[in-house]
Queue: 3 jobs
Job 1
Amino acid sequence: MSADETPDRLRELSPTLERLRAHVLEHSLKTGTFTLKSGATSNWFLDAKQTACRSDGIIALADAMLDVFGDVIGDIDAIGGLTMGGDPVAFGVQAVAATRGYDLRSFSVRKEPKAGGITGRIAGALEPGDCVLVTEDATTRGTSPIEAAEQIEAYGAVPQFMTVIVDRGGTCAAMAEAKGIDYRPLLTAPDLGYAYGT
């Protein structure tokens, strides 16, 4: 779908994704006139942390993620992404998943290397060789989750899977595919009633 097209209809969503969508629409989506990080203007703004940082939101998010990744969740060792977008997703989903019988470890990728103590950009319980689900709250261009994947790989772990609460731009899929990463966004801009990139 090109950026100037309007989605004809929403894709069919599972009950868990529909519950997440309802939460995002109620708490994370704002309408008006906004200047995006890219400098472009938009008539909608997404603050997905408003979903990830609420108790009912993180439960809806975790249920949706366990549904979407149910076929591979047993293969995943750790979950994390670039701070700050990936943090509430990774930490919240790990905690909720533990109550569902899944043993995941979580971590964060710092934006800059830490000079003292344990150095480098990885903070948390990531271990070399881990099969990783890379997380982010939302993405437009795809650069943050891809940057996280590169740092995870440099650490010696394997960024095998990737997800975001909302894919706003529609470009991350091709970037992830080029790196051999299985990318499964939970929701997309069209799921919220908007065209990609608007």
Job 2
Amino acid sequence: MVLAIFKFDRMEWAIEKCTEIGVTRIIPVIARRSDAHLAAAAVKRHERWQRIVRQAAEQSRRSAPPEVAAPVKLKDLSGVLPTGELTRVVLAESEEDTRLGGVLQFKPGEVVLAIGPEGGWADGELSWFCEEGWIAASLGNTILRAETAAIVATALALEALQ
């Protein structure tokens, strides 16, 4: 999961819950709409996020916690993604025709989801994702908070992959 950096208490909650339901990797990303002070403090939060996933993995009786990568800028994301056959989906509230469930129905294998910050991905960021081969999809007609979107998208992806 690629998770744009947003308010830390909410982000930590999303990290904890996504760990409990089964996410295997979290890559914090500094997006254009990530608050500057949060982006600056993200490097210091990395250790805390690792502790949160360890505790959440224990709580949910997972054999191993997910990896939490060091925060990266969006333009550097391609360098930290795993190689190989991946379905890469960016959640975009502007996407009207493609739903996440529909994309995952026909794309078996490993899935990487990109969840935007509060206010969503900027237009330039969505263009970048498209140029990099990501599929834009939505979670429906309602606008969800970033932490809610992360949990819902993770649950839908895990259900589709079983």
Job 3
Amino acid sequence: MRAHLLTREQSLPGPPEEVFHFFAAARNLEAITPPWLGFRVVTPEPITMEIGTLIAYRLQLHGVPVRWLTRIEAWEPGVRFVDAQLRGPYRLWHHTHEFAPDPRNPGATLMRDTVRWALPLGLLGAPALPLVKRDLRRIFDHRAERVAALLR
């Protein structure tokens, strides 16, 4: 399996505890995901975030309906959390969200996303790699814009 790495950093207003709280609310993921994905959290409320929490989603990838199930693997309020795919479009999806005071911007938080991901189907999935990389860039670009707007 060939794993890929996507990393993003963003300075956001507010202390890490507040910024973490925004990302810890599973429903906020709907607000920061591009509309073209038709992304919906289908796990009923309330969703109590902690190690072991399962969250189910529905979305559309290029018109194909997809069900996605993740589990919270690490949970350190105000510092970091990790979600990992149990079922979904990737062979591997391991997403670490980290929050720390931004040393270049007092009072702000440096939020870092690190995603290790791999495509399914081995060599048969390889032709989709450029499309998936492009889509992930677009998704995380949109996410950065939305988060900046919502946390002003």
